[in-house]
Amino acid sequence: MIQLRGERHRVLAGHPWVYANEIAEPCSAEDAGDTAALYDARGRFVASGIYNPRSQIVWRRYSFSSEDLDAVFIRRALLRALNRRAQNPVCRLVWSESDSLPGLTVDRYDDVLVLQAQTRALDARIPIIADILCDLLHPRALIVRNEAKVRALEGLSCHTYIHSGELRPEESVRIDGILFHIDFQNGQKTGLYLDQREHYGRAARYAAGRRVLDAFCNQGGFALFAARAGAGMVRAIDSSESALSLLRRNAEANGCARIETVVANVFDYFHQNRDERWDLVILDPPPFAPVKKRLDSAYRGYKELNLRAAQSLNRGGILMSFSCSHHIGLADFTEIVREAFSDAGKSAHILEYLHQPPDHPILLDMPESEYLCGLIVEVP
Ligand code: SAH
Prior knowledge:
Elements: E1 2-3, E2 17-19, E3 35-39, E4 45-51, E5 57-63, H1 71-84, E6 90-95, E7 104-109, E8 112-117, H2 120-124, H3 126-137, E9 141-146, H4 150-153, E10 159-165, E11 171-175, E12 178-182, H5 197-205, E13 211-215, H6 221-228, E14 233-238, H7 241-253, E15 259-263, H8 266-272, E16 278-283, H9 295-312, E17 313-323, H10 330-343, E18 349-355, E19 373-378
Parallel strand pairs: 1-3, 8-9, 13-14, 13-16, 14-15, 16-17
Antiparallel strand pairs: 2-5, 3-4, 4-5, 6-7, 7-8, 9-10, 11-12, 17-19, 18-19
Bound molecules: S-adenosyl-L-homocysteine.
Residues 188, 193, 196, 216-219, 221-222, 237-240, 243, 265-267, 284-286 line the site of S-adenosyl-L-homocysteine.
């Protein structure tokens, strides 16, 4: 068991984490990865969680009840996660605290599952989790991609392996009629940026007949959907040549000959091509503020990108701009975009606010679970 020190703690209002400086006396390092009941300063039970004294976040809740993190609990949590996604065949199936399994993510690509564990307790339970997933979904292959940098903070090493089944020499998945080649073992994330898939269709709505720039394209989800929707031309930029080579294969497989790929740093690209004009620009950069102390430089990064994009828009042009830094909320991000258009000397309308999709559910009591926001803005 662990006990809170003092009265004022977010965990007492429903937040799922406890930091090292909030507890009365640390458990021994031998308990790392175990479950531990949490009690308040007066000795009343709060919730059941996982414990790791090596991490700054020493305790993470998995249940408000007193219960073990055993096969019965995990099966129930996985079934709830599955039902929450309405049996969606391509989605994030499990997302950590939002699905009561702190540190576990599972992505589902039809009959291939990709699992990641980022906490000691869930890492230790991979065999149980994998067995239950195989029993519930009978995947053709289950891959374990334990490579996130945060594993080091938990004292875990990194390794990727095929837990069961087999991968084909060429893997692909179809999303809303578009075929994506997937590199499950080496591609970014678990193969695709599943959190953006619902937004590809939004981009497509504005793409017909237009000059489209997909900046930070990765495998080009936005570019492919824009091209299929009849864009006049599409240029897709990323600093990763391997992502662009998958994009080129995707473009060929989907008959999207109008996509040009450019390997470049997007900041440099805008700097070197100031005279280019576009009708639809998509900006989907990596998180510039993964930690709070990088907030200032993150603001500058988002501001510069959005300014360059605003300057490059033709009359009637549209910017679709995202942030996946959870330290920057929609209100802050809107302000950055507002300043960017103001500095560019252009007025604009906000057409749509965008958020992370429901298969990455935001836990109401955990602001950290909200990370993706975006805007669609039109220059009249
Ligand atoms: N829009 C993509 C996801 C983008 S993720 C999709 O829907 O799949 C961010 C991408 O930015 C990654 O592919 C990464 O390789 C790329 N990247 C990171 N920094 C970059 C930079 N400075 N210039 C160009 N690309 C960059």
